[in-house]
Amino acid sequence: MAPRTSAKICGMGHSMKRKEDPRFLQGKGNYIDDFTLPGMLWLDIVRSPIAYGKIVNIDTSKALEIDGVLAVLTGKDLEAYNLHWMPTLMSDTQMVLPTDTVMYQSQEVAGVIATSRYAAADGVAAVEVEYEPMKPVIDPFQALEDDAPVLRTDKEGQEDNRIWHWEAGDKEATDKIFDEADVVVREKMHVPRIHVASIETCGCLADFNPVEGHLTVYMTTQAPHAIRTVLALVAGHVGLSEEKIRVVSPDIGGGFGGKVPVYPGYVIAIAASVVLGKPVKWIEDRMENLQADSFARDYHMDAEVAADSSGRIRALRIKTLADHGYSDAQAAPSKFPAGLFSICTGSYDMENAYAEVDAVYTNKPPGGVAYRCSFRVTEAVHCLERIVDTLAHKVGKDPATLREENFIGKEAFPYQSPLGWEYDSGDYQAAMDKAKEMIGYDDLRREQAEKRARGELMGIGVCSFTEVLGAGPSKDFDILGIKMFDSAEVRVHPTGKAIARFGTKSQGQGHETTYAQIIAEELGLPAAHVQVEEGDTDTAPYGLGTYASRSTPTAGAAGAMAARKIRDKAAKIAAHLLEVSEDDLDWEPGTFSVKGAPDKSVSIQECAFAAYTNLPEGLEPGMEATNYYDPPNLTFPFGTYICVVDIDRGTGEVSVRRFVAVDDCGNIINPMIVQGQIHGGLTQGLGPALYEEIPYDEDGNNLAGSFMDYLVPTAVETPAWETGHTVTPSPHHPLGAKGVGESATVGAPPAIANAVVDALAHLGVTHMEIPIRPDRVWEVLREKGVAG
Amino acid sequence: MIPPQFDYHAPGSLEEALALLGELDDAKVMSGGQSLLPMLKLRLATPANIVDIGRIPGLDSITESGGSLRIGALVTETALEENATVAERYPILLDTAKVIADPLVRNRATICGNVAHGDPANDHPATMLALRAQMVATGPKGERTIGVDDFFHGLFMTSLDPGEILTEIRIPAPGERSGGAYLKLERKVGDYAVAGVAVQLELDKNGKVTRAGIGLTNLGFAPIRASAAEKALTGATLLEQRGFKGAIARVRGIFSGGLDADEVIAAAAQAAADATDPVADRRGSVEYKRNMARVLTARAIRQALSRAGG
Amino acid sequence: MARHNVTVTVNGEAHSREVDSRLLLVHLIRDELALTGTHIGCDTTHCGACTVLVDGVPTKSCTVLAVQADGADIGTVEGLADANGMSALQEGFMQEHGLQCGFCTPGMLMTGTALLAANANPSEAEIREAISGNLCRCTGYVNIVKAVEYAAAKMAGADAPADGEDN
Fold first, then answer.
1. Is A742 one of the annotated active-site residues of the chain?
2. With an 8 Å Cβ cutoff, are A200 and C145 in contact?
3. Is A447 a catalytic residue?
4. Residue A179 resides in a domain
5. Inter-chain touch B188–A773, beta carbons under 8 Å
6. In terms of CATH, what superfamily is C3-79?
7. Which residues lie across from B135 on neighbouring strands?
8. Can you give the pLDDT at residue B253?
9. B89 located within any domain
10. Which pLDDT value is given to residue A235?
11. Which domain holds residue A275?
12. Which of A23, A262, B103, B240 is spaced 20 to 30 A from C114 at the CA atom?
């Protein structure tokens, strides 16, 4: 689609170079660890070496002898202020610092406050903690057994390790289809615990001014406004009041969902600043980040598909166990404890479906963040896209063909899914066709047959996912009761330049550029003249933040709506300046002209000047508007990914030879940025598919607690991604856009896993658990007698 | 991650360094620091003193003389990678350097440091075993030369005395028809080896293996020499020859030992696998690692042969 | 505990400080010299966010002591642009969308700068190998590779690659 605006205006559809880049490229970004305040102190944290046990004693005397160590805060100290526990975003509770029991390895045990980073670290090494270890519960299935110890003895009425049960769909009707179906396939699969591992870790700088009773917290948060409200709710009893709390989210070095939760370190830093009356900085290191911050995924799924003998899907049934660690500290909307897992029917039309999830406590770090996905969509898509391949294998059909035969047709939109979603728009076959053409699907199948005859292992994996994002409509979506709208405030200055502020927070997505382009599209002001700001709760309008690909669907829409309000006002001014009625005006981006007399015109800049200098009678001066956008529905981007892998029969190594991603995210604001988002998402899908996992041993030791074992792919492992797109606008979004940040993270893992399984399918292999490590592949090769 | 307190010393000469090592308690020698500093930051090592030999002149040269390649204490992996003699005559060293950590670490990491660290997960020890290198240790009483087979004792344990510095590694110059290769299976760039195999072969003019060296990485508590595998190769003619010459060679082979090249290589590879004593960890099971020793040994032998120029 | 006088030239400017033996070079640069463009992303010398040039050689500054750098000529991201504007590589990153959150970017730029100084026309494989000690979590590396290629072409005097309007 050709852009509607000129390159000078640079509205939607232009690959505008990013406005934020010059500062990042010259080392002038402002990330959390770059902030320094006079008199600033440092917090470092003592952490538990064991997964479960009683704290017998904490001896801080040696630490306090160290030059520069000023204080050591323990749970007992916080208990005096009733700050030793805090609520999670899922209304569970989580310790800030323990008073008696530790529940996972690397849990915060004490905070050391010192005059420097180095002294604080020495202090941490000198605090002596005596533990009485207890046998931890690590396996979530074991946690459900009758003889499992109850972990959350702090919770009144908690008699087992269950957190909640959630279900969606008509169980009875689904079971009936299964009973009578020609074909039923079943796979058990685990989407393991992983970590966002943004290159910047988490941290904050808390600055409490005891004279004013005012707290400023600079922190790595994707949701500054919500954090401010949570702080007011949690610490109201010690005198923190919301009008005296300012949360500033500076430049963020990657978020991906990991910077949504409130971590104990933030709260300890704030408590220390309040107690000591000085600014306190806390910057976690990588090992703390991987070992204690919120994990993602960890869903054990038992999935079944019922179909007729030709492979026409009739029903889906999934039973899931969700390992949440010792507290449900997900960042999911209140009504959806299993997130949007019910998107699990995906791109396929079926009669019915039923999904259930049981959540359990174990002795692992709390969490369940929506790592670059709208709350459990990754798990749902992996599950479905894997088992659809199993079905194709079972009925002897090419996996692409089987998908095509089951697609929801483009005429069926808006489509009502069996689990209750109304898909806004889609054309799944178009994306499939484009992906097949780009990769040369038929040739690859021929090559595979030839190689197979020679004993070589090559696989082609297909995934046709449907995403759901843009949380969300206020009737269903809130976090701790706060509705999940988002906001924009646009102000045009007299000289025709503008500032636009949003309730979201970029972590690399390029909001300063795309939001400016949205305003440019609607007002015809050059995007270069629109300054975008986010992240400071004192200045930005209230919003729920950036995660779940919600920025474009919510705040982006709010920006468009606010700009339209301004345009409406500008029309009144234009009519006044041109001495015609508003009805007699034509609008081209940036210019009002008189119908039939195009040379009689005024620019949006002239209207802006007039808004301050020459107003029609009765019109309020100024040119500014605010919009809080409550989306009418979610958006449903989709795509087809095709991956080609080669397997080394000797070592079991999988190499991704090619990967084609065709995405449809509706109308595109900035093609360059959209493509970048897809590249990044694919790489964050490659990681869990082949490399990344946080496993625990039976004692609860984290076995991937540093970048030594948490295997983030480098440029060498990562293939040269190939991307394409189709455009199916969202009918309900003001710009027809859908959001894109997460599609690729969701769609890539099953495409890669399907390719590996496809390479081995002729040996009778139907499933491989991710991450598909070489040793796992080799075990299969050996079992099948083909290892080199 | 902050290192603990220590004192730092930067001697300007070898004599000064040795004197410091004699005087100071609990001193640790540092060259590139790419192994030591991460250990300090994790507080896995807490020496009271660090003697940085990085400023001592004359220790950073690679020279071929007196029938040996001499690698000084301060030669970095990058310098090794960029050295023309190494590329031409010691490709196994180039193979090894290229798979250590990542290019930035290799800019500071040294070959001697890699060896002196005594970590069986490091890559150079296996290569030094294959090459039958000599370690030159300099101490208060002067220089002594330690054969590589006497150098590694166990996890982080070598024959170096606390007062000694590994000042040079000497690698015997390769014969006319010789070739070597180092193959490493790693989970991603920057990883330690799941398994690593170094093979160095010398052939006579008929293509018969006159000398074989095989070293194994990260497959036991110390770097391993696969002696039985070496023995299996020695005396065998492995070059693939086509046509009449090949037929003759095969017939000769059958008369001499009854095995063809593929079988000899497979037997040697199996012998290498049998020499391993790996532990199961995130890189794989004992069974997997043993088999990877086998697979990589066979591949490394073939590559070494091809470089020996059939 | 012994303190040491350290003099380093950073981006052409000499600085002297008295430092602890254990002070890491990255902390000297960030905390003492207030050049916060150089970042820290891990504890185990894997991520490369802290990469600077030490006497022209790209080095992970979290794994070098400040005292080891005494007398060295250090280049950081702040020194890449000059009065004429951003360097060809910086421009390449901007034109090819080689950065998103920007946190790994300074390290990538320093590694890329050294690569181009040593190899004016690197292949894709050479670029990928050269940056394999620098982790990026946002970009998927494709556009970082393109950014280096852009800079190589520009420095060779060729026309800059076409400014793609679409993907």
1. yes
2. no
3. no
4. no
5. no
6. Beta-grasp domain (3.10.20.30)
7. B146, B169
8. 58
9. yes
10. 86
11. 32-134+202-283
12. A23
